[in-house]
Write a structure and sequence with these properties.
This protein is an alpha/beta fold. It has two domains: 147 residues, 3-Layer(aba) Sandwich (Rossmann fold); 167 residues, 3-Layer(aba) Sandwich (Rossmann fold), CATH 3.40.50.2000. Helices cover 41% and strands 16% of the residues. Strands 2-1-3-4-5-6 form a six-stranded parallel sheet, with helices on both faces. β10, α8 and β11 form a beta-alpha-beta unit. α2 packs parallel to α4, α5 crosses α10 and α10 packs across α11. It is elongated and about 60 Å long.
Length: 332
């Protein structure tokens, strides 16, 4: 009988966010060697090991499974690493209970308590490499992909776009470039942030809200765009950036730990988090200078080997087998 492995994630297929995509992908990688189940919680059903995503939101099943003697590997998200483990007692407890800590880019290890860093391993997320697509020629499309939350800071992208149409702006659209469009794929919430985004879209026809779309459709939207915008205030290691990089689409990203860990400290497409003027300047530079856009594309291409699905698959399998080995060692 194959070992039983439970993947706990606060988001399942109905949410279709980054946590779900990671859980679903890892379940596929492990299906050859394990009997894998994905759930939001642990219901007490027998399992030989648990891989849990999110220290705070999965704190209850982590605590229950560890109390029953089961080994837990914890995959740390952006809000875990860059917020919750500093302030939230349940997230801190999850760190202590996990026998293995997984981060999605190397800068995250530096944020962990020093005494726990030897438990940490980097596993880069992956995406299948796609042949670059010819971008739409009538417009210069900017992709913004993901369900909107304050941490994603979509208003920085919207303010940058607004700056590029204001009369007398010091950052006019390059005359030779087609007009800009900002294409968003993902859920727009029914809250103040969602209202602000919808209001901006109603006032500016260049903003196109596609709403939630299947994963494959979101990837095609990225593939046909000139740039992916990643203005987040915190990220653990954004899978959407990896999906852009592996189909030849450059990224303009806020300079935060999670994105620097993916793109490299010397990447030329960073701007200060929350700085819509700096983002607007980068967009114009990409419009005006094909050589700059090509340089970003080359820099992104140099990162592609990190995001190979075979590398992620073997890393995840090694994690699971090591977790079971530690469980057997604890029992002997």
């Amino acid at each position: 009988m194959r070992p039983r492995l439970l993947i706990v994630t606060p988001a399942l297929a109905d949410v279709n966010n980054g946590n779900w995509q990671t859980a679903h992908r890892w379940a596929r990688f492990l299906a050859r060697d394990f009997s894998v189940r994905i759930a939001r919680d642990w219901d007490g059903a027998p399992a030989d090991a648990m891989i849990a995503l999110h220290a705070r939101r999965s704190a209850a099943p982590i605590a229950a499974f560890a109390a029953a003697g089961g080994p837990v590997a914890l995959v740390l998200t952006g809000t875990d690493v860059y917020r919750d483990i500093d302030f939230d007692a349940s997230a801190q407890r999850s760190l202590e209970l996990a026998r293995a800590l997984i981060v999605l880019q190397p800068q995250a290890i530096e944020v962990l308590p020093a005494r726990l860093r030897d438990r940490a391993t980097v596993i880069y997320q992956s995406a299948r490499t796609l042949r670059p697509a010819a971008p739409r020629q009538r417009t210069f499309d900017l992709a913004l992909v993901g369900h909107l939350r304050p941490e994603k800071d979509p208003m920085t992208a919207i303010r940058a776009l607004a700056l590029l149409r204001e009369p007398g702006s010091t950052l006019p659209r390059a005359p030779a470039s087609p007009p800009l469009r900002l294409l968003h794929a993902g859920r727009v919430p029914d809250d103040a942030l969602g209202a602000a985004v919808r209001s901006a879209a109603a006032a500016d026809p260049r903003i196109v809200l596609r709403g939630p779309v299947p994963h494959a459709a979101a990837r095609q939207l990225i593939r046909r765009s000139r740039l992916l915008l990643l203005p987040s205030l915190m990220e653990g290691g954004a899978n959407v950036a990896i999906e852009a990089i592996t189909c030849g689409v450059p990224v303009l990203a806020s300079r935060i730990g999670g994105s620097v860990g993916l793109l490299g400290d010397d990447y030329d497409g960073f701007f200060p988090a929350g700085d819509h003027e700096a983002l607007a300047g980068l967009i114009v530079r990409c419009q005006e200078s094909p050589s700059f856009l090509d340089r970003l594309r080359v820099q992104c291409a140099q990162r592609v080997p990190l995001f190979d699905p075979g590398l992620e698959r073997e890393s995840v399998r090694r994690l699971a087998h090591n977790l079971l080995s530690t469980s057997r060692a604890h029992r002997t």
